[in-house]
Write a structure and sequence with these properties.
- By secondary structure, the protein is mainly beta.
- Among the domains are: 35 residues, Laminin, CATH 2.10.25; 50 residues, Laminin (Ribbon); 30 residues, Laminin (Ribbon), CATH 2.10.25.10; 31 residues, Laminin (Ribbon).
- It contains one helix and 20 strands.
- The strands form ten sheets. The protein has a two-stranded antiparallel ribbon.
- The termini are far apart.
- GO terms for molecular function: signaling receptor binding.
């Protein structure tokens, strides 16, 4: 009975060494654990090995793939989390603001970049680089080089939305619902500037000469 138990123990140790040896090749085990180590079935680890780590000698853990540290406490991400990211569990990074992707290797702008803007890191801060015709933190504001006058709003590159009473590419042309007569000019909504000797709301009246 004793010889059977001894043979079983030898077989168990040999199997475990073989199994761990196979796992070791693709694991992130501590460098202090060498191939062909001696497994002590009576070994105790305090604090205990975490995340399915194996206590192979007193206070010596062999970590399962994806974990590292004296007690296999810390997750291991490969490639490493970049740009200040933190490894939460094997292969899963928590990224700081401004970065994304599996390993925090991509620059990300909160809310994205609109209208063809490109998100890039500027002095370590994620920022949208906008095309020449757009501006704003997300490239959401159109630019009108000609300007939008008289309360007009730039709604698309070079295009103004004009308030009632104004027209033109820069909202610079006044509209008079009734035309100005006798060479008069519409200078603001429904207001005419008359040429002498004419007057009146629409320059319809001729001044009488004395």
């Amino acid at each position: 009975m004793g010889s059977f138990g001894h043979g079983s123990a030898v077989f168990l140790v040999a199997s475990l060494v073989t199994l761990v040896g196979v796992c070791y090749g693709g694991s992130d085990a501590p460098r202090g654990v060498a191939m062909g180590f001696v497994f002590d079935p009576k070994a105790k680890c305090d604090p205990p090995c975490e995340h399915a780590g194996i206590c192979i000698r007193n206070n010596t853990c062999f970590c399962s793939k994806g974990y590292e540290g004296e007690t296999c406490k810390y997750a291991n991400c490969y490639p490493k989390c970049k740009n200040g990211g933190m490894c939460l569990r094997p292969g899963k990074c928590r990224c700081p603001p401004g970065y994304g992707g599996r390993y925090c290797h991509k620059v990300t702008c909160d809310g994205g970049c609109w209208n063809g803007g490109e998100c890039t890191a500027v002095n370590g801060v994620a920022k949208c680089i906008c095309p020449s015709s757009w501006t704003g933190s997300k490239c959401q504001e159109a630019l009108c080089p000609q300007g939008c006058r008289n309360g007009g709003i730039c709604v698309a590159p070079g295009i103004c939305s004009c308030p009632e009473g104004w027209l033109g590419g820069a909202c610079h042309t006044a509209v008079c619902t009734q035309p100005c007569l006798n060479g008069g000019k519409c200078i603001s909504p429904n207001k005419c500037r008359c040429r002498p000797p004419f007057s009146g709301p629409h320059c319809e009246e001729r001044k009488k000469s004395h």
